[in-house]
Specification:
This protein is an all-alpha fold. The protein has helices at residues 2-28, 33-38, 44-53, 60-72, 86-119, 126-139, 143-157, 169-198, 202-209, 214-236, 238-252, 257-267, 270-298.
Length: 305
């Protein structure tokens, strides 16, 4: 219990720090949100009126203080562009992002487990070296570029899947594959390295001496210990996965938080930017805490705190 309380307090510090840094960066970026809201043909008086209405004429530290006060009451503010509550906007977009992130993470874990289990017994062979080269080539490719290639070949030339949007499960397949494949390749190499190390342990030799087959040794004896570092990486990689969601949703026009954040940055919609960043930070902190607790389940020898 003491451990959980400490982690929750530390999470609160991280979230407040995230809002402060994001708020400062948003107001350091060139551009005037009031001018964007008013439109390109608005006169100076209209822009000044909108700036007063949005409280943009106040000092930045005063605006941030007002934001924290509203946040303490669960109020994320209203979008500059639509004047809708940010909380309602996020609530509408979150399910689409959650679905895409879950599908991408599921694909990554499946690819990671399959790739690691298949290549670990082949360590040092030409198959292993070839898999390493392909993995490095795939990991060096940007998500945006992979998405454009997938759209062109799978969606446009071969017409196997829709080009974008969100209508049914077919619209989910391509963005989820792009989002999860790169992470899955990384997980596969990490698990491969851990398994190769674990397979030389004494308890693995003892299991083989007792007559355990290669499949049982890998899946039962080696995988549990080799997967512990992978659990940590999955939790830490959640932030990277969210970054990938932003690019993937933008490429495939997926109506989630990533696309919302991209549009908000273009329009300098500060409340929406702050809301998406804060929600992403909450998800990252929660995922890291969940991984810590899962560590305890996978390996009871680990004590929290």
């Amino acid at each position: 219990m003491r451990y959980l309380i400490g982690r929750l307090l530390w999470a609160l510090v991280i979230l407040v720090g995230t809002t402060a840094i994001t708020f400062a960066i948003v107001f350091l970026v060139p551009g005037d949100p009031a001018r964007v809201v008013a439109g390109p043909r608005a006169d100076a008086a209209t822009i000044a009126s909108i700036r007063r209405e949005l409280a943009l004429d106040l000092p930045v530290h005063v605006q941030y203080g007002h934001y924290l006060a509203r946040l303490a009451h669960g109020d994320l503010g209203r979008s500059y562009a639509t004047r809708q509550p940010v909380g309602e906007i996020l609530a509408r977009r979150l399910p689409a992002t959650a679905l895409l992130a879950a599908a991408g993470l599921g694909i990554a874990v499946v690819l990671g487990l399959a790739g690691g289990l298949v290549t670990a017994p082949l360590a040092g062979t030409w198959v292993d070296r070839g898999a390493l080269v392909l993995s490095l080539a795939f990991l060096s490719a940007p998500v945006f570029w992979l998405g454009m290639l997938a759209l062109y070949y799978v969606g446009y030339r071969w017409r196997l899947l829709p080009l974008g949007g969100a209508g049914d499960i077919r619209h989910l397949v391509l963005p989820a594959l792009v989002l999860g494949s790169g992470t899955g390749v990384y997980y596969a190499r990490l698990l491969h390295t851990n398994l190769v190390s674990v397979l030389d342990a004494d308890y693995i030799r003892a299991a083989r001496a007792r007559g355990a087959g290669r499949g049982r040794v890998l899946a039962v004896h080696a995988l549990r210990n080799a997967s512990l570092p992978l659990l940590t990486v999955i939790g830490l990689d959640f932030a990277a996965l969210l970054n990938g969601v932003v690019l993937t949703e933008t490429v495939f026009h997926w109506p989630g938080l990533g696309r919302l954040a991209f549009d908000a940055v273009l329009s300098l919609d500060v409340p929406v930017i702050m809301g998406t960043v804060l929600l992403s930070a909450v998800l990252v902190v929660a995922s890291n805490l969940a991984v810590d607790l899962l560590y305890r389940v996978v390996d009871p020898r680990i004590r929290l705190g």
